[in-house]
Design goal:
Elements lengths: L7 H9 L3 H23 L2 H20 L9 H23 L4 H4 L9
Helix pairs in contact: 1-2, 2-3, 2-4, 3-4
Length: about 110
C-alpha cells in the first residue's frame, strides 16, 4: 500500500489502527506548510521550527486521546493549532518583557539606583 497517495482521513484511520508510519506521512505532508506559516508570523526560523514541532506534538496527542473529530478539514485544524501555538509564543514574549524597577537601574522617581 502506498501511504503517500492516501487521503488525510485514510492516514488517520491507518494510524488509529496501529500503523505508526501513517502519522509520519501525515506530518510530512503538512510540515512545510506549517513551518512556513509560523515562520511568516514569528520572523525567526528557529522559533518557527520549535512551534511547528509543538504543533505536531499537540495534534498527535489530541488524536491519541480520541478527541479529534474528523470533518474533512485536517489541514484547517492543524493550521489552527499552529496559529494558536504562535499566539502562545507572542503572549509568553509579552509576559517576559516586563522589567522590574531594580533591573532597570532606576527607581520609581527616576533616580539611578
Amino acid at each position: 500500500m502506498n501511504v503517500q497517495k492516501l487521503s488525510d482521513q485514510e492516514l488517520l484511520n491507518l494510524y488509529l489502527q496501529g500503523n505508526k508510519s501513517a502519522i509520519s506521512t501525515l506530518i510530512d505532508k503538512y510540515n512545510r506548510r506549517v513551518r512556513d506559516y509560523v515562520r511568516m508570523m514569528v520572523k525567526d526560523s528557529d522559533v518557527a521550527d520549535d512551534i511547528a514541532q509543538e504543533t505536531f506534538i499537540k495534534a498527535v496527542s489530541v488524536i491519541d486521546e480520541g478527541r479529534y473529530v474528523d470533518n474533512g478539514k485536517f489541514a484547517s485544524w492543524i493550521m489552527r493549532i499552529a496559529h494558536n501555538k504562535a499566539l502562545d509564543f507572542f503572549r509568553a514574549q509579552k509576559n517576559n518583557n516586563s522589567i522590574s524597577e531594580s533591573s532597570s537601574g532606576y527607581n520609581i522617581l527616576g533616580t539611578i539606583i
